[in-house]
Amino acid sequence: MRPFSIAIHGGAGILTRGMMNSQQEAAYLSGINEALDAGYALLEKGANASEAIVAAVTRLEDCPLFNAGKGSVFTAEGTHEMDASIMEGATRRAGAVAMVTGIKNPILLARDVMEHSAHVLLAGQGAMAFAAQRNYQILPPSYFYDQFRYDQWQELKGSDKTQLDHVASDRKFGTVGAVACDIRGNIAAATSTGGMTNKKFGRIGDSPIIGSGTYANNQTCAISCTGSGEFFIRGAAAYDVSCLIEHCQLDLQTACDEVIKKRLLALGGDGGLIAVNAKAEVCFSFNTEGMYRGYRCSDGASYAAIYVD
User: Fold this and answer.
1) Beta-carbon count within 10 A of 282 CB
2) Helix%, strand%, coil% for the chain, nearest 5
C-alpha cells in the first residue's frame, strides 16, 4: 500500500508559552487531534484525499475555539461572514465560497461548488442562492454566538480597526485548513475562515482564493495557508510554493520556507501554511511564534503542537 497522510492547521500568530493555561492548551490540542482522527480514519479506509480533508475541516468548523464555522468572529455589522475553499490535486478542480452567512459548514458548500456547478468561486448573495438550491439549512445567529468573540468585537465596534485573531491584544490568525495524500497518491487542500473581527466593505481574504490561500497539484504539492490574508493574496503564496517545486526543483520544506520565511516577510506579511505532496511527505512553515498544527501518517507518525518547537 502506498503511504498516506493528513495535516491540519488552526491558525498562526503570537502563540507563546504562558499565554494559555494547561486546560486551554489541552482543549486546543484536543480539537486538533479530533480533526486529525476524523480525516485519518477515512484515509485508512481508502477514502480519497478530498473526503478526508473535508471531514477534518468540518470538525474544526464545529469547534468554537477556531475562527471558522461555529467559532467565526463578528463583522462590523455584528454578523458572521465566512469563506472556504477546496482543491483537488489530480484534476485541479476547485470550489470556493465567500461572504456566506448562516452556513454551519462552509467547506461543504465550497465542495458543492466544485462538484455541482460550473464555477470556482461564489460570493455573497449568489453563494447563498446556490446554498438554497442545494437545500442547505440556514442557522440562526445564535448558533454562531460566542461571548468571548462578542466581547472582542465590542472593543473594536464603531472604529476603523479590524482584528485578524481571537484575542484583541495579540495576533492569532484563526483560519483552519487541511491537506492530505490518499493511498492512490492523490492530494487535496481545504481552507475555511470566519475572517476578521469588525471587518467592513465585504472584505475577503486569501482563504477562498485559489492560488493564494489554497492550492493543490499532484505534480507538486497541496497547500493551506493562514495569516495576514492581503499579503498571501499579493504573493499568491500557495501557488508560489508549487511553482518553486515545479520550476526550481526545490523540495517541499525548502519551497514552503522560501515563501513563508522570505518572500512573505519581504512583503510585510506573517502567518504560515501546511503542505503535503504525492509521496505523503508533510511539512509546516510559519514565521510567527506559533501555529496550531498537527499531522498523522500511515507509518505511525503522529504530531500535534501549538508553539515553536
Assistant:
1) 24
2) 35, 25, 40
For 66, the 3-state DSSP assignment is coil
Range of the domain at 34: 5-307
Catalytic residue check, 175: yes
* Residues making up the chain, counted from first to last: 309
Residue 124: CB atoms within 10 A of its CB come to: 15
Q: Which amino acid is residue 37, in one-letter code? A: D
DSSP label of 262: I
pTM of the model: 0.94
Confidence of residue 23 (pLDDT cuts 50, 70, 90): very high
CB atoms within 10 A of CB 18: 6
DSSP structure class, residue 160: S
Total domains in the chain come to 1
Catalytic residue among 175, 197, 214, 288: 175
Segment 263-276, tens digit of pLDDT: 999 999 999 999 99
CA distance 49 to 302: 18
What CATH number should be reported for the domain holding residue 177?
3.60.20.30
Q: Amino acid identity of 31? A: G
